[in-house]
Amino acid sequence: MENIIVDYSFKDNEHVALIKLNRPKVLNALTTDLIKELVETLYKIEDDPKIRCTILTGNDKAFAAGADIAQMVEATAIDQLQSERYRYLQQFNLLTKPIIAAVNGFALGGGCELAMMCDLIIAGDSAKFGQPEIKIGTIPGAGGSQRLTRAIGKSKAMMLALTGDMINARQADEWGLVAKVVPSMTLLDEAYQLAKTISQRAPVAVQLCKQSVNKAYEMSLSDALDYERRSYYLTFSSEDQKEGMRAFLEKRAPEYKGK
Ligand code: CO8
């Protein structure tokens, strides 16, 4: 692959994958090819029973500074409508295994949207988030006006989307956009510790839990509570639920199989 680097067993842990966006000369600007490689890789991970959690990252200067402007400048509306990049991005939303965005540097436009498509964001203290599309004559097109609003509320989302201004990692933390801010140097280690912890939990329960939390954004409260309860019932058909509860009662560590 040309635009991403993949490690299917990060730090020799067969349960944790690392995907690094790799177009450093253009701050990891997102082309259609990059998005295709990324989503195809995530589906490969989805089908690999060993891998239980993925970390998505960039480099010290940028997670991703947005969609590739050079690729879009002369595009027509119909080009955009027919671009496979949006079909691939929709498939991103159907993934069931958790993805942690580990962000250092710029996460702007499509880069901020990509981070928000992940299940949680950890930021290095150098991180900068924003939706600067308004500065180049367009608006967020991959969830920025929706996910950002749900994450930080209407007024703050309006301020960012209408000015195109960036916020730093501390503000993103205070506003609830990121789960945690850590020193930039330790970002990948911290993301790994989190991925390792998640990958030690019962895999089926992790998948159902991710889907259930995401429903909070999509359903009415009563429907979402119903969805959650049915997912909870479903965990009782897994071997891992029996193993987890027996291990607790027997005062030993559980051994989960993802079944
Ligand atoms: N696209 C293409 N090239 C880019 C992009 C980008 N988004 N961002 C940076 N680059 C390139 C620059 O052109 C430059 O290339 P070169 O060295 O050949 O001149 C190189 O990366 C380094 O950038 P700068 O010299 O500008 O670096 P600075 O440190 O001075 O500035 C900034 C960093 C502030 C991040 C600046 O590069 C910038 O403002 N970038 C554009 C940010 C932006 O507007 N992003 C939004 C793009 S539109 C979008 O994302 C719509 C999303 C629609 C959904 C699609 C989902 C995938």
Structure in words:
With about 260 residues, the protein is an alpha/beta fold. The protein has 2 domains: about 5-200, 2-enoyl-CoA Hydratase, Chain A, domain 1 (Alpha-Beta Complex), CATH 3.90.226.10; about 205-250, Lyase 2-enoyl-coa Hydratase, Chain  A, domain 2 (Orthogonal Bundle), CATH 1.10.12.10. It has 12 helices and 10 strands. The strands form 2 sheets. Strands 1-2-3-5-7-10 form a 6-stranded mixed β-sheet, sandwiched between helices. A 4-stranded mixed β-sheet has the order 4-6-8-9. It starts with a strand and ends in a 10-residue tail after the last helix. The site of octanoyl-coenzyme A has 21 residues, from helix 2, strand 6 and helix 5.
Keywords:
binds octanoyl-coenzyme A, 6-stranded mixed sheet, 46% helix, alpha/beta, 4-stranded mixed sheet, 2 domains, 259 residues, 2-enoyl-CoA Hydratase, Chain A, domain 1, Lyase 2-enoyl-coa Hydratase, Chain  A, domain 2, single chain
